[in-house]
Amino acid sequence: MPGVRPAAMINKLRPAPALEGVASAERLLTILSAFRKGDAALSLAELSARTGLVKTTIMRLAVSLEAFGYLSRTAEGQYRLDAELLRLGMIYQQSFRLEAHVMPVLETLVERTGESTSFYIRRGESRLCLFRVDSPHRLRLHVRPGDRLPMDNSAIAQVLRLFTTSPLPPEAAMLDFPLYTAGANDPHVAGMAMPAFGPEETFAGAVCVTGPITRLTAEAAEAIRPALREAAARLTRSLGGRMPEIPSPSNPA
């Protein structure tokens, strides 16, 4: 179903690769990426339709994928993913640490904005700061990882409230991300927040920039918006996610 996305959420910001890929390797990966959630097995015709590759090319590449345990053939001649992918997936899960993905993004964002950055998740009726990098300025908001704050009207809480609701509420389509609020919880504090996502469009948390209201003005926030959008997009890519479709208010999902 077509959806309406805020302009900020369609900006994937894909940097140009420094080196060109190998065509044969890209075709192999295209075949593996053709499998979707719920697929038990795919026929040669289905693989050809999804990848745009001719059947003879798929058959030739499948020989290598079968030899290394990435694909197998069913009795009916269809292709299915094989155990080597499960082994790699388990290694990835064991080695995956959210901190390793979030902290470099927050550190870069501080360098670009000069303000404190943080990553929040929702815990019931509170928002939990998981990670934070402080601004180099002496005047800053003092929040530590592990601190819980209320689900108030701040930009951070609004993002958490919106994206922990399933399905996404139609009003999400009317908002221009990242959100900005000033004095919502503390009269001296302003903040901006942008959602980040993991696999299957699962909401990972809110990437945030906060600062004193005298410094993080509406005008300053406007200048920071591209950096925060890029940070959320970078974290989403790092987590293996993608930005979701947002339903239109006139045609909700």
Description:
This protein has 253 residues and is of the alpha+beta class. The protein contains seven helices and eight strands, in the order αααββααβββαβββα. It has a six-stranded antiparallel sheet, with helices on both faces. A two-stranded antiparallel ribbon has the order 1-2. α1 (23-33) crosses α3 (55-67) and α5 runs antiparallel to α7 (218-238). It is elongated and about 65 Å long. Residues 1-17 and 247-253 have low confidence and may be disordered.
**Total beta-strand segments:** 8
Uncertain parts = 1-17, 247-253
Topology as H/E string? HHHEEHHEEEHEEEH
Helix content: 25-40%
Query: Averaged pLDDT, please?
Result: 84
| Dominant shape | elongated
**Largest sheet features:** 6 strands, antiparallel
Structural class: alpha+beta
Comma- or semicolon-separated keywords:
alpha+beta; 253 residues; 8 strands
Write the layout of secondary structure elements.
Blueprint: H1 23-33, H2 44-51, H3 55-67, E1 71-73, E2 79-81, H4 83-95, H5 98-113, E3 116-123, E4 126-133, E5 148-150, H6 155-163, E6 179-182, E7 189-197, E8 203-212, H7 218-238
Antiparallel strand pairs: 1-2, 3-4, 3-8, 4-5, 6-7, 7-8
Helix pairs in contact: 1-3, 5-7
What is the structure about, briefly put?
With 253 residues, this protein is of the alpha+beta class. It is built from seven helices and eight strands.
